[in-house]
Amino acid sequence: MRRIGVDTGGTFTDCVLVDDEAGLLMVEKVPSQPASPDAAILTGMMRLIERAGLKPADVDAVMHGTTIATNVVIQETYAPAGVLATSGCRDVIEIGTQQRPQPYNLLHPPKPVLAPRNRRVEVRGRIAADGAEVEPLDEDAARVAIRELIAQGAASIAVTGLFSFVNPAHERRLAELVREETNDAYCIASSDVSREPREYPRFAATVVNAALAPLLDPYVRRLQQRLADSGFSAELYIIQSSGGLATALRSMGERAHNLVLSGPAAGIVGGVVTAAASGLRNLVTLDVGGTSADIGLVADGEPRLRFDMALPNGLPLHVANLEIETIGAGGGSIAWVDAGGALRVGPQSAGARPGPVCFGLGGAEPTVTDAQVVLRRLNPAGLLGGGLKLDRDKACEAVGVLAQRLGLGLEQAALGIVAVMEANMAGAILRSAARHGDNLREFTLVGAGGAGGLSAVALAATLQIPRVLIPPHPGLFSAAGLLSAELRHDLSSPLMIDPDDPDVAAITSVQSELEDRALRDLATDRIPAERRRCDHALDLRYFGQEYAVTVPTAPGERFAEVVRRFHEIHEKTYGHSAPGTRAEITAARIVGRSVADGRALPRATQTDSGSEGRRSVWFEETGGYADTPVVKRFSLRPGDSVAGPAIIEQIDTTTVVPPGWAAVVDERDCMIIEEVRP
Amino acid sequence: MIDPVTVAVIGSALKALIGESGDSLRRSSHSPIIREMLDYSCALFNAKGEAVAEDANIPALLGSMTYAMPHLLRENPPETIEPGDVFIGNDPYRGCTHTLDIHIFAPVFAEGRVVAWVGNLAHHNDIGGTNPGTEGFANRSIYEEGLRFPWVKLIEAGRESLALLRYFENNTRDPIASLGDLRAQIAAAKLGVRRMDDVIAKYGVATLEAAMAERLDQGERRLRKVFSDTPDGGGSAEGFLDNDGTGDAPVRIAVSVEVKGDELIVDFAGTDPQMAGGMNCSRTATLAAVIFAVKAAFDPASDQTAGSLRPIKIVLPERTAVNPAFPAAVSLRHLAAQRITDTIIRAVTQFKPDLAVAGSFVGFSSLAAECRHPRTGLPVVMADDLGGGMGGNALHDGLNAVDPYLGNVGLLPMEICERQYPIRIATTELVPDSGGAGERQGGLGIRRVYEFLDRCDVVFYTEQTKGEFAPWGAAGGAAGTPARLVLERANGEHVPITKNRLLVDAGDRLVTITAGGGGWGAPLARSLERVAQDVLEGKISPARAREAYGFEGAS
To answer: In the structure, how many helices (H) and strands (E) does chain B have?
Structure first.
């Protein structure tokens, strides 16, 4: 099978071609074109095809990771959406939770509202908690309201009604009316976006969808068209926030908002795939860039999935997404001393411009990267194989000013800057792990991104994570994830059932209906029957609780057994459980997926000629500069090992192996770094 | 002396473990007041009980646990405290804020002694007493305000006190939620203790203690620097509660605030005597209000520790509404605390020009209903608290529909309410024209309508219903509108209420309208585009646009 993975990033579009039969893996990097991302994609793909001596029609599948939705969300360049609400709902998305994002700010800036009040109209109609109709829908008023929304400039319409997750009749009828009254304006109902209770997050997700789809759908269609025009006949798949692939068709419309974390999700999946090949299934993935670090948790080969998230502007979004914790800690994070004399690092970042002081682009505040250059962990001679020159003297000057304020020596201050940033990262990893009661001693830390290798071992030591893995190409993480991701459908249906006296027929019928839908979707996606798989789960909670725990279930399993596991998971997650206390089942969930064909990716062959260099590097453990071997990453072959202290360099990253730790290259070309037991 | 790097690294670890403890408490609690409305707080203390790291979601709880710890330590001499103990307390006359805020503290042991404490407090829906939801504006004494735990062991050396738990269970109107929440609190504290054990194993007791001490000193130095950088000066203000909960006479809060060198003095001389009803602000609650106001006015970005309290001198005359004597009732102290905060802020605006703000809604319109669960018939207590408009300020219009100052509790979702309680919320909407006119307009209030589907015993209350006490305008801006509650009986009768306890039946409706914020700056200086946009959005009426802003409409 021949596949191309295309990951559009902020700076580069990475394209990777894999030919399983020929055992070939080929990479092409082209500059991204934010105005027309599809142009860069086509350029990269055509170059790959040419280099491989193939024709477009020879490619069997194209997998795409995109930041287009992420960018709309960050830059708030949404399409103008309107809201058609039933009784009592007009202002829900503006009032939200009535909380202030900055509780200590009395000069508070405005909260974001995706659809201003003149593009929100309410019509009579109310469904009760049990699904009964309390107040009939006023269809005449609705028709007038729809025309008013269009007149106010709405390009799309979100239909929002209370308890539509129990009975969507009003929402569905309103959506029909929108189609009748408009020239096919995009319309989405909250019950089609989420089946979870709590009106604000559900409505907010619906409005986000309505504000994204008119921008994303044309992009996906254009990309499909351009691929076809260029002679590609392969199916186009796009990676979703859940880390699963979906066909282009299923990435549009009611699922458009699933693309919000498309890019970062590919990175986590890349970590899973890379580590799985090395036999590791419990992972903390750490992707450190210039301004932020993304932290993901993978237990038993499955990335942690959650069903809600918050956008950068605070809006909640109900969508299946990988649990990625992003903190403002990266190479560009600025170190400063507050009025009380406390050392702080970040969240302000020097970014790419002006960048760290040592880049010589005008940066004046000392950053983490400057500290790493002072300590000579980063090569003072330059990075990116000499493509980026560094000025260590300037870094020393800036860190020196801070050192003076703290009453410390230069290197102590540099060590301190790194230590404080690492402590912030460690705290974020601890909190991520704590959410599920994970024991970090059973995990492997995967260091990725340009700066992951600098801190990975130090973090592992702090967190008692026994092992670090550095993939051969930390920069190709996302593209590798794309090529190996599974196609998946996450479906759920709300229930309200007492497991001690379960209505088995009701649960079974909901589950088989979900399974039918999932299998039908997989079939439409042209997944062969033998590769379709469905995993079931039930949501349970103690009676009176509102947050539920998802318990995986086997078909035909006894409810007593499911309840027993619920208590167990509750104990593990929260540290307490109450067996014997009444519980209730609140939802049935299913994941329909295509089972991967199990083939590992071919290896990208690369060798460094090269001799080992040496430089004087400061480690905390050595308490001073130590003459340290500097090893070229691809001079190492599988089976080779390097004892710390050592610095391992490659074009896109630098890995620090402190004293007492040793790196071994495994058969998959990954570096495994572990503490040396005396 | 300990180096600043170690202090920062340990500080980061302490904040992470307290955050983790808070996550665990919220996610595993039972009642909506904790998990939806986030009315809880977690903190870590040194052996002396001074907070060194906090995770406060509700500003009202900021710093407040620091005032509870000395009472615990006084009542429990060191030789009586053992590893595995967990203490409970909620008595406002033993350092707590009101009886509903249940505090849980667990000692952290090392080298055979207590080296730190992990604590949390969570607002419970009910803890017995005269009224459903325990809070009562007309309570005459603390004896009407439910169970009061002195600082006793709920868990003794790892063994749960079944007697206490069963007694507690037997005396609250919503035992399933209360016990579930208490369990979540205990687990959160124990988790914090386990994480502290890891920190101690890594850094050792001496380093940990030095780092905690230095964190407190850093907080103190930081705030002293802020006061030093502020020119010496002062201001004073008065604010009023509508009444004392039993009569109709307003209750005066008087405060003067002065910056002197590197200190701040907050003096409540001139405040009215303690009230006959239940809105007295317990000493701890008043101190917490001062801490919030000082942080918001002077140093919003600070990392709160007990060290930040040292440069603040607070004068609280005894037997007053802000420092009542036992056994005055204090359950609704939040109403007074909000007014106290608003008054301090008003005083500070007189001498700190960059605090250019108008007054915000402090009425906290609420209800607590004793009722039956719609599906199971089991007893439950529903509680909901509404925000309103925030004052406009020199930079922005006031926020619409938020819980200002010490508040910041979440709104009860309409779908959660109707699933858990026999109460249907018909609408939740903004109130047009409620914000005070100004160059920066006050934020809008909320209108929420509750329809009762079954008989409920309800305590309704709101403050700020009188026009003269509505959110104040500043720099030429106008005041916001006052709050209003109306009970619409099924038989068509409309009963205006402010603070009432009533039985309601299926078909009765409560209409709650909260206040809009005060306006900042001269209304005529407001840009006409903004006025036009507000008219378009229906946030102000054409009449208001014409009268307040001279806006004649788009031609």
So the answer is: 11, 20
The correct CATH number of A2-72+218-283 out of 3.10.450.50, 3.40.50.1970, 3.30.420.40, 3.40.50.1240 is 3.30.420.40
**Burial per residue of A323-342, b for 16 or more beta-carbon CB atoms within 10 angstroms, e otherwise:** bbeebbbbbbbbbebbbbbb
Average pLDDT estimate for A36-59: 92
Q: What pLDDT shows up at residue A253?
A: 87
Q: Which of A406, A430, A547 sits opposite B16 (nearest CB)?
A: A430
Task: Reduce the DSSP state of residue B431 to 3 states and report it.
Answer: coil
A-B Cβ pairs (cutoff 8 Å, strict): 248
Q: Which of B352, B324, B330, B321 is nearest to B239 (CA)?
A: B321
Listed by start position, the domains of chain B span 4-221, 356-555
Global pTM value: 0.88
Given a cut of 80, whether residue A545 has pLDDT beyond it is no
Of B35, B187, B191, the CB nearest to A546: B35
pLDDT beyond 90 at A95: yes
Looking at this predicted complex, what is its ipTM?
Answer: 0.93
pLDDT for residue A598: 60
Name the residue among B23, B399, B536 with its Cβ closest to that of A111. Answer: B399
Pick the CATH number of A78-215 from 3.40.50, 2.60.40, 3.90.660, 3.30.1330: 3.40.50
What is the C-alpha to C-alpha distance for residues A343 and B311, in angstroms, rounded to an integer? 21
Residue B146 CA to residue B140 CA, distance in Å, equals 13
d(Cα A59, Cα A16) in Å, to the nearest integer? 12
Q: Kindly state the average pLDDT of the residues A379-399.
A: 85
Partnered with residue B423 across adjacent β-strands are B452
Q: Which residue has the tokens 């809008």?
A: B444
Question: Which residues have CB under 8 Å from A67's CB, separation 6+?
Answer: A8, A9, A10, A262, A263
Domain chopping of chain A, boundaries: 2-72+218-283, 78-215, 488-594
pLDDT per residue over A109-130, tens digit each? Answer: 999 899 999 999 999 999 999 9
Q: Which residues of A touch B36 (CB under 8 A)?
A: 546
A283-288 and A444-448 as β-strands: parallel, antiparallel, unpaired?
parallel
The neighbouring-strand residues paired with A638 are: none
CA distance A69 to A231: 27
> Quick one: closest CA in B to A112, which residue?
B399
Whether residue B399 and residue A110 make contact (CB cut-off 8 A), yes or no, is yes
First to last CA, chain B: 72
CA distance B548 to B544: 6
- Nearest 5°: the CA angle A303, A304, A309 is 125
In chain B (555 residues long), the average pLDDT of successive 10-residue segments reads 88 90 81 68 94 82 87 96 97 96 97 96 92 93 97 97 95 88 92 93 95 95 95 97 94 98 98 97 95 94 88 97 97 96 98 96 94 89 94 97 91 93 98 98 98 96 96 98 97 93 96 98 96 97 96 70
Task: Please check whether residue A425 is in contact with residue A455, taking contact to mean a CB–CB distance below 8 angstroms.
Answer: yes
Question: d(Cα B105, Cα A74) in Å, to the nearest integer?
Answer: 41
Mean pLDDT of chain A: 89
pLDDT reported for residue B466: 95
Question: Exposure of B206 by Cβ count < 10 A (0-12 exposed, 13-18 middle, 19+ buried)?
Answer: exposed
The DSSP call for residue B242 is: S
**Type and span of the H or E element at A572:** helix A559-574
Mean pLDDT calculated for residue range A251-276: 86
CB–CB of A576 and B424 under 8 A? no
Q: How confident is the model at residue A610 (pLDDT cuts 50, 70, 90)?
A: low
| B422 burial level (CB within 10 Å; 0-12, 13-18, 19+) | buried
